[in-house]
Batch of 2 targets.
Target 1
Amino acid sequence: SSNTLDQIQLDLAGGLAGALSVTSNTVGEQAAFINSGGVGAGTSTLTGNNFSGLTSSQGITSILKFNRIFNRASFASGADVDARLNWWGCNKGPGAAGCTSGTGSAVVSAWLLFTSETDFRCTSPTSATVYLNLSSYGDGFIIPESVAPGLATVSTTQGSVNPSVVPIVGSGSAVVTLPLAATPTITSQLDSATIR
């Protein structure tokens, strides 16, 4: 829990007998949970992790929720994989251009969406707050318990942004300071998703 690793790998030959929980880790190159034997009675639960390399699960019943799974995935058949409510690198979902590919037989729908809202009403006439959200899916249904991680950038064609790089754990925000009478274009980006 709460580690930063190049790689995490679990290799089993006889099946997972109990519960395995992997929570709030950042893994850069590979997160692999592989069982070469029969599927055991246990379940692996992966929640709130930031996986930016190959993410794979094979032969282990798995529940993946509120993770950032960006780049490549390999969910081989042999055990149930419930991978709903994750961020796959773009709003169109796994397999779309710019999104994670290779989800195989895993259940992935519905996935998290990256949204951005700018509020000019609750701040001064020369500033606005940009609210970033990684905790909605479908028609904007909000999941308050989302802890999906990410690192978004916010930019403006006029004025300045603080912070311009926003850590997201389900949500985050930045303040845009503008010159008087400005009409800026404010852009928020997370992985392959860009919102203006």
Target 2
Amino acid sequence: ELEVSLVNVEDRGHFVIRSFVLTDTNSGEKRKVKQYHYLNWPDFDVPRNPQQFLEFVAAVRESGCFLGDSGPPVVHCSAGIGRSGTLILVDSCLKMAEAGKNLTMNTILDTLLEMRTQRWGLIQTEHQLRFSVDAIVHGLKNADLMSGKATDGGKQTHHTNGKRLKEDSEDSRDSTDNDKEEEGQSKSKKRNNSES
């Protein structure tokens, strides 16, 4: 038989951390267990805010549950596939990016399909997949800001789409500046013509 004792509850607003002691009443062996419970995430839906979700993922990582001398970590929701799949995909993709893997949409989808060979049905809805991608993008931006990789006035230049985004923003700025310059020249010509 097992005995479970609640030791501590830490309320972090959008998630709760509970600390338990699990005791085998026959052998007397005890284990400490921490539960990270994300609040306000209805079944078949997504969290309201990717940043708050990423704070939750960071807290889980900081717990040390992925280290060899602890764990194994267990991720579960009602069915263990929708919300669980979202968390697993986001965390896995962010870890791949940290390890230098070039993330593309195809990489994310391939990762999901590979994960589904181990747990069928991970990520149940299109909405959950969209949220996962959004959270991954936010996580990549946060990683750049925290690591100081965002240079040149905060433009993102490190990750997969960073170069494209930087080029797009420069191109659009250049075309906007050119448009404004041309518009100014046109107004100046009209003024000069009307004065003649």
